[in-house]
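Annotated sample (chain length 167).
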Amino acid sequence: MCGAELKNLPEGVQRVAAALQAKGHPHAPVMLDDAARTASQAADVLGVAVGQIAKSIIFRRKSDDAAVLVITSGDRRVDEKKVDAIVGKTGRADADFVKARTGFTIGGVSPIAHATPPVTLIDRELFRFDTIWAAAGHPHGVFQLRPQDLEALTHAPVADVAQAPTA
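Output written by the structure step:
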């Protein structure tokens, strides 16, 4: 992707594209015709399993008001008690907090290129898949990667942070 192509993308996607390019990631963000605000929507549009969508969930750490990013598999729910055991007590983050800390709106939060680097955890459940997709800074923007790429791009630990799947 060259500089001219980047200028036509929304600002958040431009940040993600630049970060991916700087790290030598082989897949640039793509803009979808339909919004992919949820894992289900993204999976439908991309023609992949819901679990292959890397959801970026932001929490607010109570001790210091830090943003905590949990990147989880689209077919799993975050277990807040497991997250709290790793990073300290957290609470819900509202849309204003998410936008202020990440630079992204809910539904388009990328795992990389945040306005303020968050405390980040990667759900081990993502490693069930060879290829995953993550938001690229906009509800219509996504990029392809492997779970191992996510580790390399974020330098975040892989942890058990998901609730057990229900039958």
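Annotation: Residues 11-22 form the longest helix (12 residues).
Annotation: Strands lie at 30-31, 53-61, 67-73, 90-92, 119-123, 132-135, 141-145, 158-159.
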